[in-house]
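Ticket #4471: structure output looks truncated?

Reporter: J.K.
Steps to reproduce: submitted the chain below (418 residues) through the standard prediction queue, then opened the result file.
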Amino acid sequence: MEGENHKTKAVNLLRSRICDPKFIFNDSHSPDTNYSKLKFMISTSVTEACNNSILLLGPRGSGKNAVLELVIQDLFQQYPDSISVIRLNGLLHCDDIAAFKEIARQLCMEHQLLFSKAASFDDNSQFMVAMLKECGLAHKTVIFVLDEFDLFAQGKQRLLYSLLDAMQSITSQAVVVGISCRLDSDQLLEKRVRSRFSHRKLLFKPPSMEDSQRLLMNVLTLPIDSSFPHDYVLQFNGKVQNIIQDGRFKETLSKYLNVDSTVKHLLRFLFCAVSHMDLQTGFLSQENFEIAFSSIQRQPKLECIKNCSILELYILVCMKRLEVKEQSSYNFNSVMKEYKSIHDSFQTSDYYARNVCLRAFEHLLYRELICFTDNRGHSLSVEFRPVKLLISSAELHQGLGAFHSCPAILQKLMDREG
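Returned output as attached by the reporter:
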């Protein structure tokens, strides 16, 4: 029973590590990490009472928000009475009126003041400037987190201008942290806004193959000085090291990183592999990672194509041919004409009656491999309503290749169109 307990405990430990941003991103020992750089920039603003503006740039899932939240948590512990955080999102507050109202609401909540919903744009703008001055006099830094920063750079940019202009005052004390997946976000700023911006940027790059291997090794290695049996830890860590250095594993990992190399996606892959660990042996295996890869890479559309009938495959190929011919709008009748032309050209043996084809067509609609182009025309019968494909040419080609009984003519047609 005790042996089973430490195996289960090992799985739980690995899962908790994968789900803990502090374990993944908090590397305070190295000054070159984005965590260390960002913490230094913001903490300097707090301790030296200076204003600052920073952009966190990188693809979605690269850890921008996670690192910022870790830094804010650490600063709250160090300076509990010297920090106030205002959060805005460009998807919700890109309108200047809504943004100033939200800033006023959060400032009122933070300082236990009465918030007025009826306050005008100018009232909220003046209130923000006055509060920044008051916070500066009280040696309290206001951190403005602007998620989806590029959306705030649309239109007249009154929010950004007012915010950065207020920070020019020696009495204010604030930090603006913009987060965006657009690397050219600072180029979107107007001249008057850009001149007030600090132009400090941190780039969050997807990890390289070597970085990914180091991350996997760090997450999957069990601590030696722990409650786990010493022999089990040595054996477990040895197996993990052998897996990561194995050529077959590197090939699997490389395929996965080619799809999406962000930290978020990599952790999802890792969590799936750990969840498939055999609790009887208590060790990770190469198969766990291959199962994780195949399960995450599941493509429902491809699986649907594999289960199609030959007639349904003909209909899909006919629709693809119509799209290649740039026929902007087509329906079941158009598909039937294309189907007949293929039969006449190649004298295929797979030719079905119109009513059979219509049932196959309706089945494709039900399985959502095709759909109607709009919701209009409900009064029309199915064969007259315009339709479109919901699968790409590559998916159809791949699906035909995985279909064991696929007629050779369909492969030739797709190769010709591809």
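Triage note (M.O.): checked the attachment and the full token line is present. The first strand starts at residue 52 and ends at 57.
Status: closed, working as intended.
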